[in-house]
Amino acid sequence: MKIGILGAGQLGRMLALAGYPLGHSFVFFDQAPGESTAGLGTTHIGQFTDQQALATFAKACDVVTYEFENVPCETAHFLSTKVPVYPPPQALEVSQDRIVEKTFLQNLGIATPRFEAASSETELRNACQKLGLPCIAKTRRFGYDGKGQARISDLAEIPAVWKTLGGTPLIIEGFVQFSRELSVIAARDVHGEIAIYPLAQNEHIQGILHRSEIPAPELSPTLRQEAQAIATKVLEKLSYVGVLAIELFQVGDHLLANEMAPRVHNSGHATIDGMVTSQFENHIRAISGMSLGSTEARARSVMYNLVGTTPDPKELSIIPDAKIHLYGKSPRSGRKLGHVTLLNPSESTETALSTKVTPKS
Ligand code: AMP
User: Fold this and answer.
1) Which domains does the chain have, with CATH numbers?
2) 280, exposed or middle or buried, with CB in 10 Å at 0-12, 13-18, 19+?
3) Under 8 Å CB-to-CB from 35, ≥6 apart: which residues?
4) pLDDT at 361 over 80
5) Residue 182 pLDDT > 90, yes or no?
6) Interior angle at CA 72, CA 71 and CA 73, nearest 5
């Protein structure tokens, strides 16, 4: 099949790398050429609002998917009149607005952090008073990697936070004292079959994912089942096809759903080397009408992101167990340039890697 991907970043790259062995070819559509997908398929350059460019792209594809959730819903809807688009555009609608998203989750009986909407400084103040301090203000739309959010510990900070976040509609969330962050990555195929990966345990530095471990250690069967039930409810409600990720907070022996991403997810990159079928392969399998592959872990898999500057690959390769993935992107502060995965690492191997890749604070 000819698979079209909206976006030409590293997720598109890894989708294509997983899809070629299955006999597919790839076409990308982005607003600028993608360094990561260079050489992996034709890239159509155009605005997401340019219907003519989108129609030309659709003609070159048998099915279209996307690698990031800020693709305008209208773009996905327009393409879906010409070619199947998976995951369904409704998944974009839900995940693009944090209020819509948390309301959707709550309506499915899924617990989330407490939240209020605020569209003015006065509403922001009221929300903080209602939820209690500290709380977190986030832009309803277009936030990622901790961008577009601010912690409020004192009511005096409100005018500055309102200004910093750009005076746009906000969600205000009660601050959750979680014991750890987890994510569940799951896939649903066109026949409605679901496959769920073991949970990932995630650690962030300055809002950017730093380390993920799959399976999350010391996870009770109750929590595992709770996460699986959350993923299943969302996948079924959206008649979803493809891979979905849901970020979770563990509080005691319960989970709160923080956000969902209708796409392959950074916390699932360890599935490439560590699971029987990677999240990328399963996404491609799902959208191309195949059955899903096993999500079983072959090993305890630990992934570190390479952010901002990449250590010399030769230096990384000194650790013989390190599976190195570089995205072909030029270095820039805060930019994800690659990741490295270790399988069943000893403490000393992991320390050797983390010393090389942990950002200096
Ligand atoms: P988000 O953009 O919603 O994924 O938030 C980025 C990071 O901020 C999360 O991974 C958490 O570490 C932290 N965070 C977000 N929301 C909350 C919350 N309500 N309470 C505590 N920490 C949060």
Assistant:
1) 2-85 (3.40.50.20), 114-174 (3.30.1490.20), 180-357 (3.30.470.20)
2) buried
3) 327, 328, 329, 330
4) no
5) yes
6) 110
Q: What six digits make up the tokens of 42?
A: 């034709």
Q: What is the mean pLDDT of residues 94-119?
A: 98
Q: State whether the beta carbon of 176 lies less than 6 angstroms from ligand 1.
A: yes
- Quick check: 143 pLDDT over 80? no
Mapping DSSP onto H, E and C, the string for 189-228 reads CCCCCEEECCCEEEEEECCEEEEEEECCCCCCHHHHHHHH
Of 95, 136, 206, the one to substitute when testing ligand 1's pocket (max ligand atoms within 8 A of C-beta) is 136
Residue 114 C-alpha to ligand 1 middle, in angstroms? 12
Distance CA 28, CA 264 (A): 16
Q: Residue 146: CB within 6 Å of ligand 1?
A: yes
Residue 119: CB atoms within 10 Å: 12
